[in-house]
Amino acid sequence: MNEILKFLVLHMGFLWVDGRYAIQRSFGGLGSAALYLVSGDLRISLTRDKGEMFLDFQPVVSDDDSNWFGVHLVYELLIDDTRRDSSLLDAEYARFVENHLDEIERCFSTEFWDETRLALHELAEAQNSRMFPGRP
Hints:
Blueprint lengths: L1 H10 L10 E8 L2 E7 L3 E8 L2 E8 L9 E2 H9 L11 H17 L5 H19 L5
Antiparallel strand pairs: 1-2, 2-3, 3-4, 4-5
């Protein structure tokens, strides 16, 4: 959990400005940890597992575990750049979230969620095809 909190302080302090996000829940143990943040339309998960950190997004209107999407897919959706296939959280992804948080929240809002979900599923399938050519 300490590594997640350090990363938040160093790179994602913007989430706390004006009480925009709040901690919803957290857990840790046996080398893994997760911290869930929530605002009006968006839930954010920061997870640390086996020494690696990940950032995922989910609309607040969904509790379906299949509706979590990694920052790399949201990056591709908004930036239209496939060079960042890695889902590992780093300072560049944190800057991306800071610079595009309004757009990310809009994509995950009730009004745009159906369209966003379809686009993110398509991007995930395309990414899998790039990473594992020839697999169905």
